[in-house]
Amino acid sequence: MARMKFLCDVERCIDCNGCVVACKEGNQVPVGINRRRVITIDEGKPGEKSISVACMHCSDAPCIAVCPVDAIYQREDGIVLVNKKTCIGCGYCFMACPFGAPQFPSGKVFGARGAMDKCTFCAGGPEETFSDKEKRLYGQNRIAEGKVPLCAAMCATKALMAGDADVVADAYRKRVFARGSGANAWGWDKAYGKK
Amino acid sequence: MKNNYFRFILPVGVLLVAAIAWAGSPQILLSPGPGPSTASFASINKVFTGDWQQYGQLFTTWQGGLFNRIFLLVLTVVPALFLLHFIVIGPKKFSHGGRQIKFFGVLTRLLHWLAALALSLLVITGLMVIFGKLLGGGSLIMTGRAVHLIAAIIFAAAVTCLFLIWLKDMLPMPHDILWLFIMGGYLSKKKKPVPAGKFNAGQKMWFWLATLGGGVMAWSGYNLYSFDGSTDQLRQMAIIHNLLGAALVAFFIIHLYMSLFAIKGALTSMITGYKPQEEVEILHSRYKI
User: Fold this and answer.
1) Domain containing A78: what range?
2) CA pair distance A111, A92, nearest whole angstrom
3) Shortest alpha-carbon distance between residue A162 and chain B (Å)
4) For labelling, which of A16, A52, B156, B227 has a CA lying 20 to 30 Å from the CA of A183?
5) Is the pTM of this model over 0.80?
């Protein structure tokens, strides 16, 4: 089975934030929650670089390890999803995550955190596929439709790639080879290790 | 004509060479073009992952199995030891007749029971979060978290008052070391006077853990609730809150056993405010009646 991965090409990302807008709008993400962020280093200086990061859907995901209620699970294709009905909003996954992916809306009781929300790789959630509930809680299910996630689909410079790990890695390897500068994709060592 | 051509091209050529030399200075040629990615990866790491290997990894391994094992150990070993104590040595019995000695005032007792109720809720809801897997998570545990918050506020208020009321009697004394050496006389069936004032060393340990430790719990708990501060800070708070919480649960169970089972009728002193004379003479031998 294919293993889904994200890859952001630092040399191509131009900080347009299109991926952030596409994700927020397309998945109707609540206010104050950003499933995907773009950060820029050395802004306005020589060597400026931008990168778009969301949940990396890690192989040995630390969020799954720390969840006290087993609300987070990994699909066979590597996509890490959260069950919002089981989540208690304790925030441990945020503390364990190396990418700052888990986000929390403020809940109804004393402003305490509500259930965690994060990138679903546009693969919906544990609810019935294409159901209203799934759309309301988790957003679109583009993977079930055979499409890549919104963010990667709309990326103008094709800096953000998503899909089968082997295909993505191969495309990136060709780019690196053509550019003549060699570097592994950012975050892959942390997120995927040797898998 | 040829002369004219040279007269024109020479200054242009000189200008071009000068321009190239000027452009060669690092300020101009270091455009934001493709630079070494690996160097920028390090800067990106600082923003996203930070020093994940330091506290992130520590928190992940500890929360991923250590914390709930510590709590399971506390919940099984401590009661098991007390069951053994109850069977082998048994509870202390004192005659409840005779002179009754005033120990706790009305306000003290009220505050104590308020703190007791709040702490019981804190322990129950805290354990609900830790063993959330067994309860299936969801709204039940979510409600537990809300109760944890309310109980914490009540506990903090009640314990602050108790801290001020009991502070003088709870200061450590030299005879507390003697008390610790004989474990308060709980390891023998004999009724020998035990070195202790109004409160014994065990009670003092519980007092300081509940007040100062409770303060640390409130501070770390508030940080975890508000979720302000750096991720590393939150990780440290979660570690402190869990480890100190385990110590508090252990002492909570000890306190329950001591008041409910270890000394027959000890509970009545916190209800009526009076202790029987014989009990005071043995267990609080240095208390000036």
Assistant:
1) 4-192
2) 17
3) 20
4) A16
5) yes
B59 touches chain A (CB under 8 A): yes
What are the tokens at A84? Answer: 């919002």
Interval B108-160: pLDDT, tens? 999 999 999 999 999 999 999 999 999 988 889 999 999 999 999 999 999 99
| d(C-alpha A39, C-alpha A44), whole Å | 13
pLDDT tens-place string over residues B214-257: 999 999 999 999 888 888 899 999 999 999 999 999 999 999 99
Angle between the N-to-C axes of helices B106-130 and B67-88, in degrees from 0 to 180, rounded to the nearest 10? 130
CA B67 to chain centre: 12
Please tell me if residue A47 touches chain B, with a CB cutoff of 8 Å: yes
Tokens 């053994």 correspond to what residue?
B84
What domain count does chain B have? 1
Chain A contact present for B97, CB below 8 A: no
Interface confidence, given as ipTM, is 0.88
What is the torsional sign of CA B9, B11, B12, B13? positive
Token couple for B114: 């308020």
**CATH number of domain containing B259:** 1.20.950.20
The domain of B153 spans: 96-289
